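Fold these two proteins, one after the other.
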Amino acid sequence: MKRLEALDAARFLAFCGMVLVNFRIAAEVAPGTDWANTLITALEGRAAALFVVLAGIGVGLSRVTAGVLLRRAAFLFVLGLFNMMIFEADILHFYALYFVVAAAFLTASPRGLWLGVIAVVALAVLANLVFDYDRGWDWTTLTYADLWTLPGFLRNTLFNGWHPVLPWAAFLLIGMAIGRSQLETTCMQHRLIMWGFGAVVLAIFPQVLASDPNLVAYLGTKSIPPGPFYILAGAGTSCLVIGLMLKLWPRIEKLRLGPVLTAPGRQALTLYMAHILIGMGVLEEAGLLDGSLTAPQIIAYALVFCAASSVYSLLWFRRFKRGPLEALMRRMTEPRRA
């Protein structure tokens, strides 16, 4: 099947959104109601959700075996643990566990995948009724007290971390279901746009109708805590962006912007690590991870970093077929095809 380059471009957009959100977290930017803070807040939980849905689409489109998927999961888990030592809001170790869930659904029908989505969300709702979501967290400093203990790590990873398996694995299964459809057809693109818009609108109503503050928080569309209507809103936003990118891609190509968007999208794993090791590293060396930056300043820095990532990627692909970490993962998980 011909590679759908619009998906690579969408992945780069998701990466840019994650860079904005993560740079604000790392730099301890003071919250506010200005346009910059509002923009970054709007991206919280949406950019990462798009990233995961696109991963699911990739699994759905490919012929990857369960063995390869589990080896990729192991690679990402180890890489994520290393990354967590620098930036605790890492998504890679969560990503690895989503792949473990996905391995159980590789041969599932689209209906089976959607039933899996419902089951994951239902388990997350049940977990919130049984366990204390706030346990381990200091919300004023965004630190997790017992993260590096086994009980704390499992609780954080499965239940109340930044991107817990329950319910975030649902995004990957949704992506797999979407990947089984005819994405190259105009009809499917229109459906994604309409379904996405409808889901986003529908997700807003429960929090408006609820009166209890705790219920409002859980029925809301924020990623913390990730309630069922957050999943609906995040999936809707992802479908909307993906549908629009697929629909508009011919026009984007005519403007000769395709390579600028697809090249970095094809090595999102490498760039994800780079935005932490290099992007945040530069800020740390400059002594700017102390809350001194404003939201507009962090947006400007993030945009410069994303632009530099695109330029680097274009230059890299002149000589190499895959990004550095992408090539390493392929060599370690699929040595016969490396």
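Now the second one:
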Amino acid sequence: MRSKNSKTNPFEVFGLTPKLVKELDDQTLFKLIKALYRILQLYYHPDKGGDPRKALELNLAYESLNLEKNEKLFKEYKNKYIQRLSRKTMFSKLQELETQNRKLTLLADLLKEKCWQLLVERPMVIEEISRKKALKLKIFDLVSHLNFSYLKPSQKSLFFKEIYLIGSEVVKKDRFKRTCYRIKNYRFLGSIKRNYIEPWALLEKHTKDKQVIYNNLINREIFVQEFILFLRPELETNAYLFFFQPEDPQHVVFEGILIKKEEVDLEEVKPLLNKVLLLKEDFAENITDRSLKQD
């Protein structure tokens, strides 16, 4: 008799599909098996010049499915064989879900890119800035903190910087409060709550004298994929701030953590604006390097 542990179900030996086995009643199915057995043995029987191994396989399969001798075993093999239908159904459903997932992923990518286009094409209008007012931002420079965490407590003030939003312009103030820099076409993208992301993991970096140096830049494509769904076009305190410069379309600038924001009169800012220099390059790294040298 056929071993129950055999991977091949005896119904397979006769070329019957699980669907057909399920549709036929036991008596009709057994009659079909007997007819197939006789026909196949005429072809495979050794006396007819057939394959002895195939003939033996047919004999074992027929014994296992002999409804007249062992109805219980017949039903056991039948039920196991029919279960393959549900496995095939599950597999097809899994394939369908995978297809849907690919479509949704593609749609999500398209939506992210559309969000990005809307962000960079919209006018930079920050509703919090009143007319004849400027917005002063105090920011903790996380990139400088990563690069120069060994500084003395007296030098920790270098980790803080100020940015002024004046209309659609962005002005950065030197940490030594001697000069202001207006960055050309510098656009505020938005803020992301600190518990949502870990931006330092995606910062660009390089090695100098066996030390890892972080830049305040994130690849634009990575930013769109990983962060843009968390981005809010608002100045939110205790959140990460991100800016964009069209002259460098491949990067997003990570300014740091917004600690405090306050409105100031333009009259207070005018003395600073008189000292403004136009700076196209990224400000943070240049100022940090110069500040450290002066210390």
